[in-house]
Specification:
The protein is of the alpha/beta class and 219 residues long. It has helices at 32-42, 58-67, 83-91, 113-124, 168-174, 183-189, 209-218; strands at residues 3-8, 26-27, 30-31, 48-53, 73-78, 100-105, 129-135, 141-144, 147-151, 158-160, 164-167, 194-198. The strands form three sheets. Strands 1, 4, 5, 6, 7, 10, 11 and 12 form an eight-stranded mixed beta sheet that branches. The longest helix has 12 residues, at 113-124. The chain binds cytidine-5'-monophosphate (C5P).
């Protein structure tokens, strides 16, 4: 089966307070985008990659892929105003006969191939999609302003990460223009069956400067 990766890298990263989009902020010696791009390219499970770059940064993204020798990069598109829209634009470059789409956030650079293997294995078992997730250590409450409305049962909750894998046609059919925060939400809403697989604590999502320091120390 052919497996295509869509790398969502079009976020502005305002909370980092940098002079450039998050994907091009330095992580160690390279732009942040380099880490996930090189790891997807080296993955045993990925056949081709589409990058959704920050609008106006498609050229630097292509140059970076060339510099890194990422031969699996098939297209680089300008992303949209929301993550869901960036993924939809990236997915438009994935050929109709692709079997699976693996969507990953460039904001989670420390991608291990074992996680890609776990999410794809679920598709072979007949699931429409699979997401890596971790149990929560904090108790989560639903609130209304300052007031607690209810305490949610922690054992039933998971913190969900990327990469997320889907039967390519299922994901294509599910991204309907709504502003889903992750692709699995769209697939769930369309009636798809999504499996939870073991996540990876190293898949920290970089949101602010402290996250960047923490991940740089793990490189
Ligand atoms: O903004 P946030 O960190 O939640 O974004 C998660 C991922 O989605 C990041 O890798 C970011 O580059 C990507 N994204 C995107 N297009 C957007 C917003 C976010 O590709 N419009």
């Amino acid at each position: 089966m052919s497996v295509w990766a869509v790398l969502a890298a079009a976020g502005s990263g305002e909370r980092l307070g940098a002079d450039r989009p998050k994907a091009f902020v330095r992580l160690g010696e390279q732009p942040l985008l380099a880490e996930s791009l090189a790891r997807l390219d080296a993955s045993e499970w990925i056949d081709a990659i589409v990058v959704a770059a920050p609008p106006g940064w498609e050229e630097p993204a292509i140059l970076l892929a060339e510099e890194l020798g990422c031969g699996k990069v098939s297209a680089c598109v300008a992303g949209g105003p929301t993550r869901a829209e960036s993924v939809r634009l990236g997915l438009a470059e994935v050929p109709g006969d692709a079997a699976a789409a693996v969507v990953h956030d460039a904001a989670r650079p420390l991608l291990e191939d074992a996680v890609v293997e776990r999410v794809l294995a679920a598709l072979s078992e007949g699931w429409d999609g699979a997401v890596p997730a971790l149990p929560l250590s904090d108790t989560i409450k639903r609130v209304d302003g300052d007031a607690v409305v209810e305490t949610l049962p922690r054992d039933e909750l998971r913190a969900v990460q990327t990469p997320q894998a889907f039967v390519a046609d299922v994901l294509r059919g599910a991204l309907d223009g709504s502003d889903w925060t992750d692709c699995a939400s769209a697939v769930e809403a369309a009636g798809g069956r999504v499996k939870i697989v073991e996540g990876d604590a190293r898949l920290v999502k970089i949101t602010d400067a402290a996250d960047l320091e923490r991940v740089a120390a793990l490189l």
